[in-house]
Amino acid sequence: MPEYAIECTGLTKKFGTFTAVNGIDLKIKKGELFGFLGPNGAGKTTTMKMLTTLLSPTAGEASVAGFDLKTEAEHVRTRIGVVPQEFALFGELTAMQNLWYIGALFGMKSSTLKARSEEILKTVNLYEKRNIPAEGYSGGMKQRLSVAAGLLHTPEILFMDEPTTGLDPQSRIALRELTQSLNDLGITIIYTTHDMEEADKLCERIAIMDKGKIIAEGTGEELKATYGGCHKIEIEMEEYDSKLLAELKHISGAQDVLQHNGIITLCLVTVRGGVLHTVSSFLAKKNIEVKELRAIEPSLEDVFINLTKKDTRDQ
Q1: Which of 226, 248, 280 is the last residue of a domain?
Q2: Could you tell me the strand order of the sheet in which 67-68 lies?
Q3: Between β-strands 157-161 and 263-268, what pairing exists: parallel, antiparallel or unpaired?
């Protein structure tokens, strides 16, 4: 059996003269919870549509669940589930009716469909609401029903396209916990999101796309270590002089010292090894009143901005 759930070599999609996805190479291991990040128009959605057989590649090769994306698309579809960003089921139907309809499309036998539908609704915590029309569901409930529909035929790989967008905090947490529990069962999950904190907490590895290319890939920690910029110590105080700035740079080993609106920022390679204590003790010995002293680690948002820049994207 192949080691990878998804393998892509030179995967490309063009629309006329516009290249939406530009020759990406990608390997996602079985059982991974893999994240896609990127600004609007980066190529994430187009990549997802190709991997789920909704779009045909212009060039390149790819296999999904061991099947060729171009020549064995029907087999691919039997092995994958999709949770779209927008609710795409029938609001006038109950949860059970929606699942029966989806099951019929997959050719599932009625003798097993009822049991499977009930099982999966229990998994997503909708069993007690199974006979209520979906149009009466909250946003979080609709997304959990979408997950149930995507899981009904027991797929090996689940694609989730920004599933927590627009949800309240409680629903976001519930859906993240559900996603993690599904991955713990061995389901490979491909997850796109604009929420950096969500991606950092949830995904084992992350690919950052921009302008149709994968520009960085790795674990959250690897990305932050490579692209996150400096570690920071911020010191907020009422008064200080330029001599203090030079002293702080010397005793901390900072690469740079910045000052803005009463806050001194020390940029360091790391804040480990007692550097924060050293700075705190130095200020205490000088009887300098400090409002706040804090260490700030590089974040995935820092990585994202450093790689894709700050310009906004319209599409």
Answers
A1: 226
A2: 18-29, 4-15, 59-64, 67-68
A3: unpaired
Residue type (1 letter), 141: M
Domain of 18 in residue numbering reads as: 4-226
Q: Which residues contact 87 (CB under 8 A, 6 or more apart)?
A: 134, 142, 143, 145, 146
CA distance 154 to 172: 23
**CATH number of residue 58's parent domain:** 3.40.50.300
| Mean pLDDT, the chain, integer | 91
Residue from 208, 203, 278, 290 nearest 37 by CA = 208
- Residue range 8-45, pLDDT digits in tens: 999 999 999 999 999 999 999 999 999 999 988 899 99
Placement of tokens 């996805």 in the chain: 21
Cite the DSSP H helix spans in the chain.
Answer: 44-51, 73-79, 95-105, 110-123, 139-151, 169-184, 196-202, 220-227, 242-252, 275-285, 300-308
Confidence at 315, pLDDT banded by 50, 70, 90? very low
When pLDDT is cut at 50, 70 and 90, the band that residue 97 belongs to is very high
Tokens of 28: 């996602």
Among the listed residues 252, 251, 208, 213, the one whose alpha carbon sits nearest the alpha carbon of residue 226: 208
Q: Flag whether pLDDT at 310 surpasses 70.
A: no
- Token reading at 20: 């939406």
pLDDT on residue 58? 97
- CB burial class (10 A; 0-12, 13-18, 19+) of residue 107? exposed
Measured CA distances, 279 to 233, 244, 265, 273, 276 (Å): 9, 11, 12, 12, 5
pTM over 0.85: yes
Choose among 33, 69, 5: nearest CA to 207: 33
Using one digit for the tens of pLDDT, what is the confidence trace for 191-243?
A: 998 888 899 999 999 999 999 999 999 999 999 989 998 899 999 988 778 88
For residue 305 the two structure tokens come to 């901005």
Q: What is the CATH number of the domain that holds 235?
A: 3.30.70.980
